[in-house]
Design goal:
5 helices
């Protein structure tokens, strides 16, 4: 086998390897692919981004629903990171203006966080109302915990024997001697909380859906704004190019009229 059959070097000092069947003209040679010869990563198209915005917003809402449930914080965090990254990082990058892009990031963060938090409250309230138990008690002590943030824990005393939790997370508005209603799930699916009015979770669910709709509309508006600005820039560039070409064609004509044969 000759050196041509084994392979040869092409222009640009890239190694060529023989592929395919041998013919009279020699083997078919193709360059080896490497990281340098691969096409660079291209950002997602506006159409694809627009189609995936509702799905990303739905994952943010689902992450909020799963967050209060036992053994679900990790899947909830994964869903929230996936949907939030798409909405807050990928969508604003379609805008060429840095200031406008940062503004849209801020506008998208607000409904995304609101949808997740409200969905978590609605999910916890729904479980406690569906399968929880309620018991009356009195706050006997408020413990203040200091760290990166200040948190409070209330010690509850009940009348008679009960399986209700003796300690509960509370706020600085709770004081010793306050009469409270504690709701908890005997199965431990969600954390206990102070009992609220019946059907309160519906209020949180409605607010979560409103935030979800606002998130989708803001995302689609960002894509539409990016497409509009890109189209406007293309039209302006084409107009400038036509003006330049027109001025360049006019010069030879004027020169020819001044110098007749």
């Amino acid at each position: 086998m000759t050196g041509r059959d084994q392979g040869e070097r092409a222009v640009g000092n890239r190694r060529m390897v023989p592929v395919g069947r041998h013919r009279n003209g020699g083997p078919v040679l193709r360059p080896l692919r490497s990281l340098r010869t691969r096409r660079p990563w291209r950002p997602a198209s506006p159409k694809r981004v627009a189609l995936l915005i509702p799905l990303a917003a739905l994952t943010v809402l689902a992450s909020g629903v799963l967050w209060p449930l036992r053994w679900m914080p990790v899947p909830s965090l994964v869903l929230g990171m996936a949907g939030g990254t798409w909405l807050i990082v990928v969508v604003p990058k379609l805008l060429p203006d840095g200031v406008l892009s940062r503004l849209m990031v801020t506008l998208l963060v607000v409904p995304a966080v609101a949808a997740a938090v409200l969905a978590a409250n609605a999910s916890q309230g729904f479980v406690l109302e569906l399968r929880g138990e309620v018991r009356s008690g009195v706050v006997t002590r408020v413990i203040e915990h200091h760290g990166k943030t200040t948190s409070y824990e209330c010690v509850i005393r009940y009348r008679g024997a009960t399986d209700a939790p003796g300690r509960l997370n509370c706020s600085d508005s709770d004081h010793v001697g306050d009469a409270v209603q504690v709701a908890w799930d005997p199965g431990g699916l969600v954390e206990p909380d102070f009992a609220e009015a019946e059907g309160t979770y519906r209020f949180f669910a409605i607010l979560a859906m409103a935030s979800e709709i606002a998130l989708v509309l803001l995302g689609e508006f960002t894509v539409a704004l990016a497409v509009t600005r890109h189209a406007a820039r293309k039209v302006a560039a084409a107009r400038d190019s036509a003006t330049t070409d027109g001025s360049g064609m006019a010069h030879p004509q004027s020169t020819a009229s001044r110098n007749p044969l």
